[in-house]
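Justification of resources, computational component.

The compute hours requested in this renewal are based largely on the per-chain cost of generating structure records like the one below. Each record pairs the submitted sequence with a full structure-token output. That output is archived, and it is also reused by downstream analysis tasks.
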Amino acid sequence: YFITEIEVKLRLNLILSLREYIDHGMKERTLILDPTKLERVIMRMAWQILELNSQEKDFYLVGISKSGFKLAHRLMKCLSKIYDGDVRLGEISINKKNPPKGPTKCDLDPEDFKGKSVVIVDDVLNSGATLIYAVKYFLVAETKNLSTAVLIDRNHKRYPVKADIKGLSLSTSYQDNVEVSFGDKAAVYLV
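The structure output for this chain reads:
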């Protein structure tokens, strides 16, 4: 059987492509929270947020774009079932690759939350950079109370920031990633 040089190159490219697909595209995913457990954790977080703000007639939930905002929206739905006060939803956008370089944008003006309680919400607390820059934004105004809530705390903080409310504390290696999905099949995976 005779193989031409072109066929050899094509086969090598195919093998390399398959290896790359296997190494990078088919990462093993470990289910951490299935949809039912995820909803239970979010509801528990809502109760904890309510405990922190039980004396307030209204407060702000501000989610960090994109997944943090989705989590804040879900928390707001849970809070609407157990809280008679007014929960206002906001979104803050931070440059996650390089927070000090900015821009940091929020759909709330500092005057909106002056004298109010604010809960900053994010999906995963990794190094703490994103969360600390979100906190920095809210320190401009005189908030009554400022707290943080995260779904997953990975315990790899490089900044002096903590989550007041944690859905789940997860010890992982630096190579691991946590993937949170709020789509049709909401779940949390370790990748």
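The chain has a mean pLDDT of 87. The longest strand covers residues 117-125.
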